[in-house]
Amino acid sequence: MKKTIFILSLIIALVLTSCTTENKPKYKLSDQAILVHNGTIINVKNGDVLKDKAILIDSGMIKSIGNYDALKSGVNVKHQFDATGKFIIPGLWDMHVHIEGEDLVEDNLALLPVFIAYGVTTVRDMASDLGEQVLAWRDDIEQDKILGPQLFTAGRKLEGINSIWKRDLEIANEEELAQMLDKLEYYNVDLVKITENTLPGPLFLKSVQEAKKRGFMVSGHIPIDLTIQEVVDEGFTSIEHASYLLRLGSDEQSIVEKLKSGEITKAQANELYTANFNQDIANRAYQKLGKTGIAITPTLIGGKQLAYLDEDNHENDAFSNYLTNRFTANYQWRIGRMANDTPEDKQARKDRYELIAKQLPYIQKAGIKILAGSDAAALNTYVYPAQSLHEELVLFQEAGLTPLQILQSATINGAELMGTLSTMATIEPEKQADLVILSSNPLLDIKATQDIYAVINDGEYFDRAELDAMLQIAKNRKIQLDKERD
Ligand SMILES: [Zn+2]
């Protein structure tokens, strides 16, 4: 009995002690804690702004948002940054890049910090011939061994036999599909990517089903012998490239039937989709699609660069200072493929680009989640890593999306898709501290995302001079690599 009373009083004593410590902050600050004060904090969920507040960051996390005077104690004055007149947004997400080129390992490694310098703190790599290397970099970045954006990656993508892409996981039947999915599970990829260059519709559909069964997100292209609805019905996570949506402006079902019966060829089917495009039919299809939860990564900038190749001069693009000669040599592949284009072909390319871009406000209105993704890749001519995400955002604005919708496409929409919105992509306590501090207001003009004053990546503050130093290192590395390979 006495023992019980003793234990009881012990418990009471413990409760009392914990009560007296209640006024102390919930967190204990490290020497590395930083405080960013007086900036305008943008809530990307609803466009609200919060003025004259301070953001307390420590150990990679946002700890608190409140009054400067209340938060400054315990933070080294050297780690207090005045953001008066600045605008603070979450770090940007590029939801479609390819870190690629088996002979471009050093080149790609040198470009990883460039993403940070451009305010791109998260990237979704949509598979490449460097799959295993990208997976290793994903872990190295996570463990702070190298500086780069947080990576989500598909590793390698599923395709049919002899696809045009290098080092795909090529499958001919369900048995090979199972083997490749085993491999992707072993790799611990963040999603499965499937494309349609040589993969027939039925096996494509089976691949979606089997990947979903294993709990993967599945993103990719849409085969010409399947309807978009058939793929979406299997739980496809996101359609990559808005060009596929042009099919919805026609009677897609009947065109797919004609193709399958051999009445028309693939090329003819594609021509029909463009020639028959009807906006009202498309809008009705978008409404239906909007109810399924599917997302779309439009990747406008790649198509734009190719369509306007004859008008735009890229010779003096400043970004080429970061790209080795071996990297940009890949650009010739697509330029070569277009070398015999007639003036009519060129005009058709431009018309098609404009029609695709025009779809964005309709897609947004229908409730289809739009993901900002550049398709930056060595093989994608003039679609530069990091910079092209900002160009994509400007194209979204030109197409008629509002700056807030565009910010959402490059922050919360990506995080929601990847299932990490509870820990990333907004400026709130207990979220990962990835922030971009801008010198002008992105809610007025999205071009402000290019007006970068500072970047906070995983809780680490980089001022403009430090970002410029990162870029200088990348420039020097390019010169060095070019010289070594001469
Ligand atoms: Zn791509």
Q: How much beta, percentage-wise?
A: 15-25%
Supply the CATH class of the domain at 91-426. Answer: Alpha Beta
Number of helices: 19
Low-confidence stretches: 14-23
Shape: globular
CATH topology of the domain at 91-426: TIM Barrel
**Main sheet: strands, sense, barrel:** 8 strands, mixed
CATH superfamily of the domain at 91-426: Metal-dependent hydrolases
Q: Can you give a write-up of this model?
A:
This protein is an alpha/beta fold and 486 residues long. It has a domain at 91-426: Alpha-Beta Barrel (TIM Barrel). It is built from 19 helices and 18 strands. The protein has helices spanning 2-20, 68-71, 105-117, 131-142, 174-187, 201-213, 228-233, 252-260, 266-275, 279-290, 300-307, 325-328, 332-337, 343-358, 360-365, 387-399, 403-409, 412-418, 464-485; strands spanning 34-42, 49-58, 61-66, 80-82, 87-90, 92-97, 120-125, 150-153, 158-159, 169-170, 192-194, 218-220, 238-240, 295-297, 369-370, 435-438, 452-457, 460-463. Strand 6 (92-97), helix 3 (105-117) and strand 7 (120-125) form a beta-alpha-beta unit. Helix 5 (174-187) packs across helix 6 (201-213). The longest helix is centred in the last third of the chain and has 22 residues, at 464-485. It starts with a helix and ends with a helix. Bound molecules: zinc ion (ZN). Residues 96, 98, 126, 375 line the site of zinc ion (ZN).
